[in-house]
């Protein structure tokens, strides 16, 4: 039988830290990353020389950046690896750190996400591939078309789709690490400029820079280093899939459904037990598509569930309490690790004004162009 994370030894998130997401600037990536790592070490109560392996999720900065970043913390000789998986780079780095600890190869591992938007490239050109659009259908246009299709199929208005950004801006305003920290009205969200189709600027996530770090540890490490077990959050499952062939269905939604089902089954829970969700809402319509694909509501009902407050902080399930990619931001490499930091903070009950009451189980979801999908399920001890 194929092993899963749940069949190996338990893995716990014991420390998280972030450098606030921000507009691109002159801050060196080393400062971004080291800030997040030091915050995670302090949160866990660990020293850098107690970390035994490091994975860095990054997609738009540079090759070999881990060495220059970690040398500021000390040359301890631990194995370092950089992970690139498009938007899911940080999520994949976190999965690798979890596998390292679950397999007994290390007792303490760290996943770091760091990026500065220095370069973006597509594999199609290098592969010599061409299509009828030849690169002109940029992501915003792709999701604008999906938004139009969703509105047509389910009788949903542009205002109902834009309401995703209203909710997430309200949450992001409570998050000191968010790039967009201003609550927005529906009129503000709908205001020009339109980026593509019905999608306005505030319905598209900002691409900035930042860093996030999450430290995972075994039970042995928690006992040996005297860590606070009450603040440890258990990683129940880690699922990773790539797309197959789908019959006319949006591939990101189909892939989300498959990967979420795998993660939920591996965790030994039902989706109704999930209290907080951080998902890939780079564009407003994505939240509606993905909560339906996850089974959080019936197909075609997400906009109405959102309207009734089911996805608010304090609602049935808090979706993107951090502000999501729309307001927290999407600096690519850090995004997936930042989701883990938010869920860990929520499950500890330490989220302050954006705390979802009685949060016990959380789910983190990201898709990466290509397409890949990663889903993690975490639970408070």
From TrEMBL:
All residue ranges annotated as the Thiolase N-terminal domain in the record: 26-180
Pfam families: Thiolase_C_1, Thiolase_N
Domain of life: Bacteria
Domain Thiolase C-terminal: 242-369
InterPro entries reported for this sequence: Thiolase (IPR002155), Thiolase-like (IPR016039), Thiolase_C_2 (IPR055140), Thiolase_N (IPR020616)
PANTHER family with a match to the protein in the record: ACETYL-COA C-ACETYLTRANSFERASE, NON-SPECIFIC LIPID-TRANSFER PROTEIN-LIKE 2
Protein name: Acetyl-CoA acetyltransferase
Organism: Amycolatopsis magusensis
